[in-house]
Every structure is written in structure tokens, then in C-alpha cells.
């Protein structure tokens, strides 16, 4: 497979012409534009049937070309593993990915009064996501499920950006009171943590847990999705801090 995309940006280095180096009229972080081309050849391999047990592996290489700033051309690698297995009333699905990315990032992170060009640094990072669901079809009207989600961003060690990771597990059950709508209840527990790359202060670690009740499915012929309400609490064990509040999540699509 081969994808090609084109993007124009009037500020590829996230500069600001209104900020000047002290005592000068030289922009601290000048705005510059460019036309960016991305060529993405890839390969997709699948074992198994589309409607049955299967494993799919997809690899994509992104060749990023800055037409006006060729010194910053870069490569990115993206790997995605998807799977589905069924046995009796059980179905296990997964979507796991690892992306090796390289790009400029916004904000004032690289603003340096003594080095106006310091913001022209591409930040390399690895993004990982693991997502799995185990579903048990108890009957035609009810089921139970467990979800596992993990995502992490690991920045290169020569930056002062913080790595971050999130872990979350959910247990729930659904009752289908019609062919198109179901009522569900679920509880969850998760963790979040951040870590420095250059010997900085370790970031906060937090635990979050709570529960929801909601409805999901097809509300009208054109409107589908889910609506849930509940309560959650986030605690910071290392700082003896905690906060709790009601929570609402809406995910709808209109076609």
C-alpha cells in the first residue's frame, strides 16, 4: 500500500515574530512556512478470515519531506497489530501499536534568549498503545466484558520533556433491552505516571477509580453511540491528595 499527503504550514517551528531576543529586534523564534510532503509506503499482512479468527500486522514507513527546509527531512515508523479470537461464548479482540515518531513540537519549550535557533529541534519519541477486550456473551440479552488499556509516550533522553504512561482496567456488563439499545454498568481502576528524561524531579503518580451506568447503541436511524454518567476519584498517594467528582461521557456519531 502507498499513501501520500501534503500539508502547508505557515509556522513549522512554532515561532512568534512578536517576541524578540533581549536588547535586539531579532525575533526570538521567527515564524517560517513550508510545504510538507509525506510519502507512506507500507505492507499489511493478515492470517485468518475477515469475519472469524484473524491476526493482522501492518507496517508503515513515513518519509517526511520539507520542501523548503530539507535539513529537517525525517523518517517515522508505525507498527500496528490487530487480532480477534472467538471460542464458544468468548471473544477476545486486540489493537496494539508502536509508533516511532519525529517532529517539531509547539509551545515555549525550546525558547532560548541566547540561541534563537534552539527551537529548531525535532523531538524523537516512541508512542505505545495496547488495547484489549474480553467479551462473554452470557445470553442473547446480556453479556459481560473486561477492557485493558495501556498507552505511553517515551521521549528521547536528550530532552527535558517528561515521559508519561497510563494504565486502565474496566469490568462491566450489558443488558440489551432492545435489538438496538443496551444498558450497561461498569467499574474501572487506572494509574498515571510521569518520569523525567534529564534527571529532573520525578512527576506525580496518581490512581483513578470509579464507576458508570449508561446506554449505548442506535438511538435513531442516523444517531448512534453511548452516554454514561458516574463518579470517579483520583488520588495522589505520594502527596496524600485526592479529588472526586461526578463524571459524564458522551460519544455520539450522526450519519
Question: How would you describe this protein?
Answer:
The protein is built from no helices and 14 strands. The strands form two sheets. Strands 1-4-5-6-7-8-9-10-11-12-13-14 form a twelve-stranded antiparallel β-sheet, with no helix packed on it. Strands 2-3 form a two-stranded antiparallel ribbon. The chain has strands at 2-9, 16-20, 27-29, 34-48, 54-66, 74-87, 90-103, 123-136, 142-155, 163-175, 181-195, 205-218, 223-236, 241-254.
Give a quick set of tags describing it.
255 residues, mainly beta, twelve-stranded antiparallel sheet, two-stranded antiparallel sheet, 14 strands, 0% helix
Strand neighbour order, sheet with most strands: 1-4-5-6-7-8-9-10-11-12-13-14
**In percent, how helical is the residue content?**
under 10%
* Topology order in helix (H) and strand (E) letters: EEEEEEEEEEEEEE
In terms of per-residue confidence, which ranges show pLDDT below 50 for 5 or more consecutive residues?
Answer: none
Please give the number of β-strands: 14
Mean pLDDT: 89
Number of helices: 0
Please describe the biggest sheet, giving its number of strands, its sense, and whether it closes into a barrel. 12 strands, antiparallel
Give me the secondary-structure category. Answer: mainly beta
Strand content: over 45%
Write down the overall geometry. globular
Kindly provide the radius of gyration, computed on alpha-carbon positions and rounded to a whole number of angstroms. 23 Å
Oligomer: single chain
- The rounded distance between the terminal residues' Cα atoms is 28 Å
